[in-house]
Amino acid sequence: MEMTQPPGQPGTERRIGDVILDLKNISLSFGGVKALTDISFDVKQHEIRAIIGPNGAGKSSMLNVINGVYRPQQGEIVLRGVHRTNMDCYGAAKAGIARTFQNIALFKGMTVLDNIMTGRNLKMKTNFLQQAFYLGAARREEIAHREQAEAIIDFLEIQAIRKTPVGRLPYGLQKRVELGRALAAEPEILLLDEPMAGMNVEEKQDMCRFILDVNDQFGTTIVLIEHDMGVVMDISDRVVVLDYGKKIGDGTPDEVRTNENVIKAYLGQAHEGSAA
């Protein structure tokens, strides 16, 4: 992902491609508790794929399976046609998967710029000795990575706070910085765990715009957990629905919206027009 295109300008036409990530019959247990049971779904290149469900449905557990935090007891993970069942967090990151977290996981004492720079760690080519003594190659590399981080700051419209310690920022801006750190890794697949939780209406609108821009301008595939049904139905290409660790629905927003199992388990009165 090259941050060369100014925000707000249209990128190349977004086209949803072939399956890039295929999860087959995933089951995950903790002791005697089943978090996920025989779940299968796929993610296509360049799409926005939402995962929804009530609290405790297994949504975050599924993201943790995708990026290697948890290893399922059963099932297969196929990434770009390669079986990656034993993938760990480092392997997922090297394979182009980045994520944000439900609870903000930033370095609160570091500036916005420095936090975003940490997302460039896997892109570093120089060794520890070169970096420690700031030798020529390390100096050139840091300048290049800093330029990328500054481009992300411009893209996310947070230039005015680039030198501010993250811990001093309001919650909505911290969530934007966390998105920036994930983008710094230039992911092919971006996992977003409730990116709009705790935000007001204006902050949600901004975050939706950035998510759509990342997907449209850079072609980044996005897997999204979000409780706001208005957001999910507006920006998602396809939605998979979990309930008590089982899949109960999968399809386009319109198909999910009219799925009787989903209405009973999750949407409830929201289907009839009340707020979700």
UniProtKB/TrEMBL annotation:
What's the short name of a Pfam family annotated to this entry?
BCA_ABC_TP_C
Ranges of residues in domain ABC transporter? 21-269
Sorted alphabetically, the keyword list is:
ATP-binding, Cell membrane, Membrane, Nucleotide-binding, Transport
Please give the Gene Ontology molecular function terms for this protein.
ATP binding; ATP hydrolysis activity
Instruction: Quote a single Gene Ontology cellular component term.
Output: plasma membrane
The record's annotation in PROSITE patterns points to: ABC_TRANSPORTER_2
Known CDD domains for this protein? ABC_Mj1267_LivG_branched (cd03219)
SUPFAM superfamilies, per the entry: P-loop containing nucleoside triphosphate hydrolases
Instruction: Extract the Gene3D superfamilies matched here.
Output: P-loop containing nucleotide triphosphate hydrolases
Write the protein's name.
ABC transporter ATP-binding protein
What are the top taxonomic ranks of the organism? Bacteria, Pseudomonadati, Pseudomonadota, Betaproteobacteria, Burkholderiales
